[in-house]
Amino acid sequence: MKELFRKSFDLVRGDPILWAPSVIAALITVSLDRLEKTGVHWFIRHFAYQHSVLGGSVPVSPSEWQHLAMMTIIPLGFLKHFLTVTTFVFTFVVTALMVRSTLDAKRPEIRAILRETGDDWRKILVFSVLCMVCLGASVGISRYLLILLSENLHPEAVVGPHILTYTFGLVVEFAAAWLLMPRAMRLLQQSSSFSIDSGGRTTGALIVILTGAIGLLIARALGGTESAIALQGQIAQIILLVLNAIVESLPQAFMFVALALIAYPAVAEAGTSENPESAPQLSE
């Protein structure tokens, strides 16, 4: 896996355009977050006040509007989560196709790649739903195990609760990635008969949790920076939010490239033999 990491880093460093899909996805995610918050605030104001045709508004009792607001806000959050996951999967496929073109010693043609990705929209949506189910189950399982361990062993006396939470999260995330890895590889290969051995499956899952942990550390460091820097004005805050999202997307781009090398081992080897300086191979 060390060799795979090195070759993935060389490929990303040699062709920075491979970062572009993840950066765009990060900007889309930031936009979705802003839209969700704006929508939630609008619905709360809409249900919390009764507007008169003559002008003005009258506060409504919380018991009357909270239920209606929640019935609207919950589907809105689900829609935002689904769009975020779908964007993640779409970016994953686009990045992998760009890696394949790069390994073939060809310049990635964005239009052709987007067209090829769009043709597989059904498979992308199905895989997005599977990711949502696995992510939801992993969060539920990790929280249940954390509560169970806290009630019986009182781990707060030994380790911090945040460390314990992140540890359980990484373990459960590894299990979810291990389960989804064959389906992800078949999505990239566009073949239902493609199979991945246990070694590649484990390597892919380890790449997911390692890059996820790095991304989490970066997010926490940037979050501390946001708290330390008091920016005046909404525009400055949005700019900082966008820059942070771009930085946080870099581990994701690296993960997509590494998984693409696992999915296209034959292409990687052929690309290396033709252009050893720009294309990595999976085995010496």
Tags for this entry?
single chain; 284 residues; mainly alpha; two-stranded antiparallel sheet; 2 strands; globular
Topology:
Blueprint: H1 2-14, H2 20-48, E1 49-51, E2 57-59, H3 62-103, H4 110-119, H5 121-153, H6 161-189, H7 198-228, H8 234-263, H9 265-274
Antiparallel strand pairs: 1-2
Helix pairs in contact: 1-8, 2-3, 2-8, 3-4, 3-5, 3-8, 5-6, 6-7, 6-8, 7-8
Account of the 3D structure:
The structure is a single chain. The chain is mainly α and 284 residues long. It has a domain at 2-49 and 58-115 and 195-274. 80% of the residues lie in helices and 2% in strands. It has helices at 2-14, 20-48, 62-103, 110-119, 121-153, 161-189, 198-228, 234-263, 265-274; strands at 49-51, 57-59. The longest helix has 42 residues, at 62-103. Residues 155-159 and 270-284 have low confidence and may be disordered.
- Fraction of residues in β-strands: under 5%
Helix content: over 70%
Distance between the termini: 12 Å
Overall mean pLDDT: 78
- Broad structural category: mainly alpha
The major pleated sheet works out as:
2 strands, antiparallel
Spatial strand arrangement across the major sheet = 1-2
Order of helices and strands: HHEEHHHHHHH
Number of helices: 9
Please give the number of β-strands.
2
Which residues sit in consecutive blocks of at least 5 with pLDDT less than 50? 155-159, 270-284
Coarse shape: globular
Q: What is the C-alpha radius of gyration, as a whole number of Å?
A: 22 Å
